[in-house]
Fold this sequence. Notes:
Radius of gyration: 23 Å
Distance between the termini: 31 Å
Number of helices: 12
Structural class: mainly alpha
Amino acid sequence: MSEQRSAAGDTPAQEQAAAPAVTEDTVEALVRSQLAKALGGKRGMVEAAVPTLTFTLSYIVSSELRLSIAMGVVAALVLGAVRLLQRSSVQYVVTSLFGIGIAAVFAMRSGDAADAFLPGIIYNAVYAVVLSLSVLVRWPAIGLMIGPFIGEKEDFTSWRENSAVVRLASRLTWLLVLPCVIRVLVQYPLWLADNYGWADTFALLGLSKVAMGWPLQVAAFAAMVWLLARGRTPVESAPAAGRED
């Protein structure tokens, strides 16, 4: 048995170190799985949009800021109650409730309903900058997301030794940047116009936030799936990749 082990050239410890850390055949399959979880599915995306849409329509109809904010909060609470009754995760409802809470603080502070959309604009701008920087310094955000599943579990940075994984993660991260940039380019001018009294753009702001929320995210996800389908990047552990170089 020792002769067979010697002929193979690797000890059991070496074989274990050289084995892939995950069972998927490709990095693409792993990323698809993680992105699907992050989006929360169709229901999660709808739950994120309903409170904003409720707030927008309520203000258009009533022009009452406090009432409109209350309606948005009530919509989120109803969605959360349904989740609790079904004994399912309230993660996306809580996120939505938190978002409308921040929006309410901005709007109530200034008394301008359009300011409810300012936190989202700021968030997307900052998010786009952070994601872009992560790619430029060769630590793409998607790579950080899948890092624990690639290479050695004890070494969180081992995935960066595989240049194919870094390139794939960079391209996927740019696809996450694009929706954020589009939202800022469309919504910020609308907010400026309303804020400075150039035009009444509140309705457009609300509708653009909903239209550019999960639909844009789904479009980005579809682009990612298309990109992932084009190639098959092997899942390798760091030691295995090192021996091939």
